[in-house]
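#struct-pred

JT: dropping the chains for the assembly here, can someone run the whole complex?
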Amino acid sequence: MTLIYAGLSLGAVYALVAIGYNIVFVASRSFNFAQAQLMMIGAFVAYTGHVTLGLPAIVVVALAMVVVMLVAAILERVAVRPVADHQTQLITTLGFGTVLTGLAQLIWGSQPLDVPFFGAKEAMTLFGGRLYSFELGLIVLSVVLVAVIHLYNRRMMSGLAIVAMSQDDEAAVLRGINVRKLAFAAFAITGLLAGLMGFFIGPKTFAVATLGSALALKGFVALAIGGFGSFYGGLVGGFVVGLVEEHAARYLGSEFSNLSVFLILILVLMLRPTGLFGQTQERTV
Amino acid sequence: MTDPLLTVEHLATGYGDLRAVWDVSFQVWPGRITVLLGRNGSGKTTSLRAVAGLNPVHGGTMTYDGRSLESVAAHGRVALGVSYVQEGKRVFRTQTVRENLLLGGYSLKLRRRALENELDRIYELFPILHDKRDDPAGSLSGGQQQMVAIGQALMAKPRLLMLDEPSGGLAPSVVAEVMARVSALKDSGLAILLVEQAVEAAVDVADHVTVIDIGKVVVSSPVGEIDDLERIKDACMGR
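RK: done, full complex below.
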């Protein structure tokens, strides 16, 4: 059970990255490869707020969310909006992410920093397994976020509009939807969420400048397994990657953990090229 | 005759720097149907896209309700009452019929609860959409998807409705039904601009006919003054 908790909480981290990718993907059909770096900044800001400034946890969360949202807004203006083509945006966002990694190293150094969580960092026993409070927090956060986003996209007019935009942005404009404004808002919201996520993942992964690239890859794998554009898919994909990684490390040896993850990815993509929850793209001409 | 709601004069437009329309003028009146005819590639759709704000204007003027449209962004024109139904039944395929119709009313800036009340107007016009309201729009037949697309446009409470080949790809019996519905819409005072390939079906419902070819107007006349349909047909064939 302890191993499953470890797998689920690690998977939740990947799922959170996948959620971030998905929000931008659904709103603007483009990939934000700086998503994981935004979360990394969030974790660092949480460390500074908590440890350096000694602020209360709730203020730290708010601080991390606002700072990362501002970074995400700059990212949109600098690396996304001036570039019309989605494929080029892969490179510009990747570049922006690399700059963020470098900046984090300059500001916070290259040593991993231990980010505290709400209350004490101690393990508890649940259903015969042991897990930390922050691990439970991660799992709950990822599930709740996906459920909230799903409801939002079905119930709220702006949620419906974002889903519509992802299918046909020109048709969305003709229904009076300000597509550019909503795409920008989606970016800002991913920033806001990345700050929140950074606060939650920090205690698990530590705040370290190389965190971004490690998460970016696994988050992408989680998304590919789950299916691009599907929030439930990203969640399941994240949990699959986390569980496989922990179990392979435990029973086969840590050198097999990455290998097993990619093996699963290849298997899934061979059986279902659009991912477990992906929709087959149909186009009418 | 009442004043036109939309007056397009000497419009030049295209895609980016590429010009497809050189000099097109037409007018649309409240409670009347203006039909825009012309062969494939003559610039009908491009002209409609310019009015909707999707294509850049290179020259000429578009006056809507006494004001110039050019300074208004495409999504803002919907709020002014300009609704454009594109060809090819471009509904949001994965979303339900109800969600599609709700999105049609997006420009009204109402809460969802209030928008739900507006749906009845559309269900009254197209009862089949009420039966299918929880089905994904992509699963409907072509004719029903066209109804969803027109229903979306009507949700926005438009004053000008532009329909781009509403009969395209539909069975002849369905074409007649769609045309009858379009004709009925003008009685509520809606100004309708209709682009069609099916010349006879379109002229049947038209009040005014404008024919364009290679981006220029070749015929423009009230339908009562057309004594020879063959002349219109010839013009549509580029002769």
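JT: nice. Chain B has a mean pLDDT of 88. Strands of chain B lie at 6-15, 18-28, 33-37, 57-64, 67-68, 82-85, 160-164, 191-195, 208-213, 216-222.
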